[in-house]
Hints:
Layout: H1 39-49, E1 80-81, E2 88-90, E3 96-98, E4 102-103, H2 108-115, E5 120-123, E6 135-143, E7 151-158, E8 164-172, H3 176-193, H4 196-208, E9 216-218, H5 231-248, H6 258-279, H7 284-295, E10 297-306, E11 309-315, E12 319-325, E13 331-335, H8 345-353, E14 364-365, E15 368-369, E16 379-380, H9 388-397, H10 400-403, H11 406-409, E17 426-431, E18 436-442, H12 444-447, H13 452-464, H14 481-497, H15 504-514, H16 523-531, H17 534-540, E19 544-551, H18 553-562
Antiparallel strand pairs: 1-4, 2-3, 5-6, 6-19, 7-8, 7-9, 8-10, 10-11, 10-16, 11-17, 12-13, 12-18, 14-15, 18-19
Helix pairs in contact: 3-5, 3-6, 3-7, 4-5, 6-7, 13-15
Amino acid sequence: MCVCPGPRRIGIPVRSASLPLFSDAMPAPTQLFFPLIRNCELSRIYGTACYCHHKHLCCSSPYVPQSRLRYAPHPAYATFCRPKESWWQYNTQGRRYASTPQRFYLTPPQVNSILKANEYSFKVPEFDGKNVSSVLGFDSNQLPANAPIEDRRSAATCLQTRGMLLGVFDGHAGCACSQAVSERLFYYIAVSLLPHETLLEIENAVESGRALLPILQWHKHPNDYFSKEASKLYFNSLRTYWQELIDLNTGESTDIDVKEALINAFKRLDNDISLEAQVGDPNSFLNYLVLRVAFSGATACVAHVDGVDLHVANTGDSRAMLGVQEEDGSWSAVTLSNDHNAQNERELERLKLEHPKNEAKSVVKQDRLLGLLMPFRAFGDVKFKWSIDLQKRVIESGPDQLNDNEYTKFIPPNYYTPPYLTAEPEVTYHRLRPQDKFLVLATDGLWETMHRQDVVRIVGEYLTGMHHQQPIAVGGYKVTLGQMHGLLTERRAKMSSVFEDQNAATHLIRHAVGNNEFGAVDHERLSKMLSLPEELARMYRDDITIIVVQFNSHVVGAYQNQE
């Protein structure tokens, strides 16, 4: 059973939807750990959409308390507002009759304001009028369903080595782990890719107190933040990692294996998250932070693009999808990641081989790890990695907020031979070709609502401004001549409507949330879905985070010609 609204992946009844971030007495700035989702703006928009001249909303369902309806009515009544007394009206003869309730929807500008609140675009700068990078740029966006949103995203250019890093991170049991991974993982990857000489230069600079050359140039939306209070702790752990890399170097000059570097970075960061929680911190704020990070969890899907070399490292059930344009102009999808869940037979086999035969029936139950967790690989989630004794010892010595939380004290059933969970990624390599036009990285909130082929087609048509005219499929629905005329008219208007979005990720989210049974955006449906209050939104969809990376076909083709 998955509890909603609440953590989608953890199927246990808990008192709160996620781990509490702070107690009332904690002076720490709460806003540091909550991404700005423009709640004030949403409140204003929702208030406008559902405003009634009777100055109150009486749209409550008999099954949902009015106190839960913060911004909009229950979905069953979401499109109606009525006066307090009833929907019954009286004519001039005093006879009572039932009037048709008036419908209220978000206007297109209000819908756009919500969809575009977290969008971000980056274009790779040109040199002498030419773009020498295989990446033209990227678009990204997020649409929250949880409050606060549990997804994160990151993008950065490697400054001491070549290439660009892009990633999406899907948190569960809170946003603490996904936040930490989104801040830290790229540094671990960048350090893993550095040559021995550069690592020595960095260590010598730190030792002598000299300024460090930056190793990453971040490309962040203003709402994407860093935890300043934890920066020193994170830096010390990262420094210990590069010191160990220096010590392990044999002095031989060897090429860096990108696949190995990605795997080492993922595993080392997860190990540091675990170790920091075990050791604790004398600062009460940091001590609580590292425990929250460790007891929550996050999946990660990261792409490293260097020239025509594309590596995708995936842990969990987010996905990377390559958009390929065929010779006839149509689009095809190439999957560059595998979901680590019960639908992956290889993952099921791996888990069974890692544990005794008498656990074969209990290690995965109801398509969940130990009957609880949907992804079979993730950062954090120490409840599936630590021994029972270690969990109890850390919780008992931890702050009261952690010790009083039912989720942290809960021991998974049939918990005999931990660890049951790993953060080790599965790395896929692909050599880019001129027909490879873009890459979509997205959390499973997108893939739950859209087929991969539809995702690639929609993005491809958006980027090229060309629509491959295919026969309209009605999927077994009875369609009248008038309805078919409407579908054809809508398709003809699609060319102009595509340009209302200046961001490919926004355009994709619009389709993911607003598509009707014919694959076209239905404004009424889109308005309803965006009008759901945060208490109900999670029942209908998950957080959605998307990065669309556009490749430079001319540069990719030039690489091929040189070879």
